[in-house]
Amino acid sequence: MKIYNLPDDVLLNRSELASPIVLHRYKASVSSLREKSVLKRNAVSLVIRGQKTIQFPEKAVETNDREIHFLSSGNSISSFDISRGQEFESILIFFDDNEFIDFSVGNSDLIDEARREYSPASSRYVSIAKDDFIRNYIASILLMVQGGKVVSLEMKRLKLWELLLYLLENYAEKFVSFLCRGKAVENELAIRKVVEANVTSNLTLEEMSFLCNVSLSTFKRQFTKIYKSSPADWFLEQKMKIASDLLRSQKERPGEIWFKLGFETHTGFTRSFKKRFGISPKDYRLTCQE
Length: 290
Hints:
Layout: E1 3-6, E2 21-28, E3 32-39, E4 42-49, E5 51-55, E6 60-64, E7 67-71, E8 74-80, E9 88-95, H1 97-106, H2 108-118, E10 125-129, H3 132-145, H4 153-170, H5 172-179, H6 183-197, H7 205-212, H8 216-227, H9 231-248, H10 254-260, H11 266-277, H12 281-289
Parallel strand pairs: 1-3
Antiparallel strand pairs: 2-9, 3-8, 4-7, 4-9, 5-6, 5-8, 7-10
Helix pairs in contact: 1-6, 4-5, 6-7, 6-8, 7-8, 9-12, 10-11
């Protein structure tokens, strides 16, 4: 029996695989039984018509056109019954964990509030009944993909986050149960939240790992996996970006920035800035005034 890797095996435009978010309009007009598939990414299935049975490791679920469905990456077995002449059609939005975590970090207050209120059990699959907003949302996605139009990553991300935020605000218990579906995702989310909230605080890596409730070695390993950089290089680069923005906006003088960014001395800040941009902070600010 063939094993389908999704979205890899259904995309005609192979360049789409490089994108962290993939939109795919899917149709099945022939019945199939026990079709093995491996979801390489998470997916939202916006079912337009028809019904499909999906067997996950822990349970079987019936997807239908009265609901939308969140599916976690992993193995599953699917069956279609087209015997009544109704083909199955849906729009699939594939996205990797990083997209979900980016969204979660940006909306951490709402997510933490939902967790405190509901304390939901984790789930690899959730379904949410269509309401007027969701039906109109699906219609907007259909307009975007009709005729095989190429959709930019920026637009795909905007539409994905639009749906996620709506569900978080209106169906928080189900949404958070899917978000909290695995320890690896939880660890990464915790690390992202701590790291990105403390870019300029000068916390040690040991202190950050303590806040994340993981060992120092796990923190370092996960940090490198998430940011594709060592902690020292990443934090320095972020501080340089902030310094550059402040100097360009003329809101801060070089002598005021180094302490705000957590440098121990003005000299150390100047040396790092010059190494990154080729000129001193003072000269950089002057060039921005010209």
